[in-house]
Predict the structure.
Amino acid sequence: MTLSRRDLLIRASAVTALAAGRPLPGFAAPELPPGNRRIKWQNWSGGQSCLPAARLAPASADELAGILASSPKPIRAVGTGHSFTALVPTDGTILSLDRLNGLIEVNHDTLEATVGAGSKLGDLGPLLEAEGQALINMPDINRQTLGGSIATSTHGTGETFGSLSTFVTGLELVTASGDTIWCDATQNADIFNAARVSLGSLGIITKIRLKNREPHRINKRTWVMPFEDMMEEAESFAKTNRNFEFYYIPFSGMCLGISHNETDEPITPRTSDDDDDGVMTLKALADYLGWSPSLREYLIKSQLEDLPDDVFVDTSWKIYPSERGVRFNEMEYHLPRENALAALREIREHVEGNNLDLFFPWEFRYVKSDNIWLSPFQGRESCSIAIHRFYEEDYRPLFAAVEPILQKHGGRPHWGKLHTLKADGFSNLYPHWNEFLDVRQSLDPTGTFLNDHLKEVFGLA
Ligand SMILES: Cc1cc2nc3c(=O)[nH]c(=O)nc-3n(C[C@H](O)[C@H](O)[C@H](O)COP(=O)(O)OP(=O)(O)OC[C@H]3O[C@@H](n4cnc5c(N)ncnc54)[C@H](O)[C@@H]3O)c2cc1C
């Protein structure tokens, strides 16, 4: 069995959806009663599911307004179901934005483009390139819709880049009453501050105007480095690269650094994503050598230590996203930048000191501060720490062990990733919490868009 850096990073993404349908241990998926013709919905990891009364996909804002008036409540918008939290499940109506996609308007002078909210990030790459534009930054994958991504403040890495929500310069919202509202920095500015990160709680976003940039080519480099060296140098890597992030491989003492920098170099062939072995090798090492952390560390380290750097060049929208075939559940917290490396060290000491059961690499990223009301990056330069758990395993014991450390260091959870915070916790973490609640109440006084999860989050249960 071989183990390579590519295995660990790229393959860490790639055992396919064998189990998209299997409930997690301890998480009973709803079963269809006999004769019931409802169609089950479930998210990407299989950890969230429901049996909605209706599943609809309007093709226009008018059709959408009709659905909002007549369909069973609560109504929840869905993108591609890549959120791990229970943002989407409902007994009422699941509303897909799939048919509201593509380019609507392009402004070549300001480098802005208005697109349908159901557009997938991956589809935007070629569409924008044909218009001389490109997204400013991208997250790890490109399967999500733009509407779903901004609802949870989806982000990539890079100290000079905010989340995707910060690239939004205007958007159109259809509210519970069927009204269509355009908002931007000057028109309906309060709604704009709330709607750029809204958890889908204000209404259905139909169009989004994005600030873009010119198409560009990126050199991506991946390298291996001991944990202590990474702790020393991470801040300087963050300052000197366009994008920098790293993974820590638990029980190895080793990190994988990744940088992205703009380049004019020619495009190089991408090393093939051949692989399910890497992450499964880490799993096998955990399964068979879990009793001996030192032997496990020795084996992983010895296979990683001498690996040469992996470098390739491509167009930005092709190089940023990876394939994530190995299904997992995830918790990610966004911490004040000055606390984040110390938090990571503490998590490592706790997990490895107590020989906790896990094998997925942890991801550490940099995100610029913004001023969007419910953005987890609001008002502070941030670093994100993400912990993953194989989809077949119960994530709760691991996440319960790590979450207090992330919270102690001032972390705010990613809205789309698992956490246990409730309204009290959020109101302390978000200075604009009450302003957001006021806008939500005025746009949706009867709770058309409130499912059980949102009621808990907003303290309305
Ligand atoms: C493999 C994987 C990799 C990921 N990588 C990253 C990453 O690199 N960075 C990161 O930050 N996150 C990442 N995520 C999380 C993901 O980006 C977010 O959870 C995102 O919100 C998912 O988008 P979606 O289109 O699947 O939306 P869904 O998960 O379907 O919905 C998310 C929310 O958006 C709302 N919504 C969707 N469309 C609309 C609309 N048109 N109007 C109003 N509300 C709407 C929904 O109601 C819901 O509240 C990843 C997730 C997975 C599974």
About this structure: Confidence is low (pLDDT under 50) at residues 1-29.
